[in-house]
Amino acid sequence: MEQIERALRKSREQRRTAVGHQNGTAAKIRLTPAATHTQTRCVSLAPSLLDAHRVVSAAVHHPVTDVYRSLRAQVLQALNARDKTTIGITSANHGEGKTLTAVNLAIAMAMDVNHNVLLVDADLRNPGVATCLGLEATLGVSDYLTGDATIADCLVHPRIERLTVLPARNRIGNSAELLASPQMVHLARELKERYADRLIVYDLPPILTVGDAIGFLPTIDATLLVVRDGATRVPDLNRALELLGGYNLIGTVLNGVP
Question: Total structural domains in the chain?
Answer without folding.
Answer: 1
